[in-house]
């Protein structure tokens, strides 16, 4: 058993997976300073002193509101805490927090927080974000001048249903 542990822990630094308590995964090194700061803030918030790794698939820097500036999505499905054994503290069952930030006056500002089973983003001028709530109902949101609006859902989402997935921003 000791040999296996030594091998695994010997391999982790080579893969860039063992470093400071909070870090962006080595596979995603092209994040902006503002995004890196928010990633580390989320790792600390979700993992505490245990530290963790936010994998590249959960860090999406893309213009979301059509202003030509990089915005940010952080998907807590891609955050691993506690020496690669526990997921984010911001997950409930299969759904995890998906945080959506828009850039305003040079800063990334949290605009929406969703509970979702992952997120997908199209490559349009104003991309569509595909999300799925904990009850596996898919829905899409898109920037509409001043906020993200629900476009459609599998089960004809009514005005009350998005509240299942959307978390208030504090």
Task: Give the structure's gist in a few sentences.
With 170 residues, the protein is α+β, with helices and mostly antiparallel strands. Helices cover 19% and strands 38% of the residues.
What does it look like?
With 170 residues, the protein is α+β, with helices and mostly antiparallel strands. It contains three helices and 14 strands. The protein starts with a helix and ends with a strand. The relative contact order is 0.12.
Protein topology:
Elements: H1 2-15, E1 22-24, H2 33-47, E2 52-54, E3 59-62, E4 71-75, E5 79-81, E6 86-87, E7 91-92, E8 95-104, E9 107-116, E10 119-121, E11 128-132, E12 138-143, E13 148-153, H3 162-165, E14 166-167
Terminal residue distance: 46 Å
As a percent range, the share of helical residues equals: 10-25%
> Number of DSSP strands?
14
Q: Summarize the biggest pleated sheet.
A: 6 strands, antiparallel
Structural class: alpha+beta
Kindly estimate the percentage of residues that lie in beta strands according to DSSP: 35-45%
What are the main properties of this structure?
single chain, 170 residues, alpha+beta, six-stranded antiparallel beta sheet, 38% strand
